[in-house]
Specification:
single chain, alpha+beta, 3 domains, 35% helix, 6-stranded mixed beta sheet, Pdz3 Domain, flat, 12 helices
């Protein structure tokens, strides 16, 4: 009887798919219906003969994964758990305790509590080992489960037991009961360099990016910043609005920033700047590399096309496609590629990921190419952005020896050589840089 019920469920699911495809019945869908019959047959055989019992829902979910995830690199079927996490990442905030963690399965160490977070205010220190969360020992649960227990509804209480060494080197345990609060991770890292050069690293584009960049620039301006290095290396993108709003800070006069175009005319959209920019004349060098993608490439393409910034680094990743996320009836979601991004001058940002080699197009090619091995580049940025906060110390610290950053150093050299840039003459700077490099090689 149970087997008959399962086959009935499979039949209903197949009927649903056929019903969904009915509007396309006159455009060659017969072969698709034949394949649906095969799918039903395969599911039936799995139900009858597979060595372990399976559930129709699980088989159908796996079929959805395969159907969507094989369309391209960025379309995907998203289960309910991951849908929740994507929403948190997009907002750029979540309910939690404010702890950066490192470890492996069964071990969890505090890298740093975030400033002004519940963990920081309670006195949790860098290096503390979390050994228990509520009634669960960390060694008995997965890392994802541990993180989920420390995130969630604002105001919800969590009890942590940590292990640390006191001033005498004796190992002690301490218990903390904390209330979850709204956590806004730091993703913008400003710094004042020599010769009144401001530096801002942007880790990604989320709900608070533009607000944080604006605050960083205001602070640097108070320190007499005269030029800016905007670092988008390893920035994977994020929300479209954040990327466009960042470009608007430097581009005004209602200029085109980016446009999208897809198979459906509804997905043709133009995004333009406002009449006035906050920093219309600030000389800018933009750093990009192979890890700069999506929103980073939109900003880079717009600033380059309008000759608003000089780009230094390596060709960007080439992720210039638009994904539309639709919530499904059960709370899962479908992320589907519907269009591609184009720079103001009509360059398609997206590259064909099936093609390899030196002739591969796509991405944004910098004005000045400075190749820099990725592990060293990543280490140099991590060193500047991995701030360690301790309730027992007044100032944040970074650890490790300063790593030489060839791309950043080239940007500093050019800005020092052209202290009064005014309207940035990109071609003149490129020519000057080429001459300098030939002299060095000689």
């Amino acid at each position: 009887m149970k087997r008959k019920v399962n086959k009935y469920v499979i039949f209903i699911v197949a009927a649903f798919f056929v019903g969904s495809l009915f509007p396309f019945a006159y455009s060659g869908v017969d072969s698709g219906l034949d394949q649906l019959k095969i799918m039903v047959e395969v599911m039936s055989k799995i139900q009858d003969s597979y060595v372990e019992e399976t559930q129709p829902k699980e088989l159908i979910t796996n079929a959805l994964y395969g159907m969507v995830n094989n369309l391209d690199e960025f379309s995907e079927f998203i289960n309910i758990t991951n849908t929740k996490r994507i929403k948190e990442e997009t907002r750029g905030e979540f309910g939690g305790l404010g702890i950066r963690l490192i470890g492996k399965e069964g071990e969890l160490f505090v890298v740093t509590p975030l400033p002004n977070s519940p963990a920081y205010k309670a006195g949790i220190e860098p290096g503390d080992e979390i050994i228990q969360i509520n009634d669960k020992l960390v060694k008995d649960i997965s890392s994802n489960e541990a993180i989920d227990m420390m995130r969630g509804t604002i105001g919800e209480k969590v009890t942590l037991v940590i292990k640390r060494k006191d001033k005498k080197g004796t190992e002690i345990t301490k218990k903390f009961t904390l209330s979850k609060a709204k956590i806004i991770p730091q993703i913008v890292y400003p710094k004042m360099l020599e010769n009144k050069i401001g530096y801002v690293y942007v880790e990604d584009f989320s709900g608070h990016t533009v607000e944080d960049v604006r605050k960083a620039l205001e602070d640097l301006k108070k320190q007499d910043m005269e030029s800016l290095i905007l670092d988008l290396r390893f920035n994977p993108g994020g929300t479209l609005d954040s990327a466009i709003d960042l470009a608007k800070m430097f581009i005004g006069e209602n200029k085109l920033i980016v446009y999208t175009k897809g198979r459906n005319a509804a997905y043709f959209k133009e995004y333009k700047s406002a009449k006035k920019a906050l920093y219309p004349d600030l000389p800018i060098i933009l750093l990009v590399n192979e890890g700069s993608a999506s929103g980073s490439e939109i900003v880079a393409g717009a600033l380059q096309d309008h000759k608003r910034a000089l780009l230094i680094g390596a060709r960007t990743f080439g992720k210039g496609s638009v994904q539309q996320v639709s919530t499904l009836e059960d709370g899962s979601a479908l992320k589907l590629t519907v269009a591609k991004y184009y720079t103001p001058l009509g360059r398609m940002i997206h590259r064909d990921f099936k093609k390899k080699g030196p002739n591969t197009t796509g991405g944004i090619l910098p004005d000045i190419v400075v190749n820099f091995d990725l592990p060293t580049a990543k280490s140099s940025i991590v060193q500047r952005t991995t701030m360690i906060y301790s309730p027992s110390k007044k100032t944040a610290t970074t650890e490790g020896k300063e790593i030489k950053d060839e791309q950043l150093n080239r940007a500093v050299e050019l800005l020092k050589a052209r202290k009064v840039l005014g309207a940035l003459n990109i071609e003149e700077i490129k020519a000057q840089d080429a001459k300098t490099e030939k002299v060095k090689e000689a």
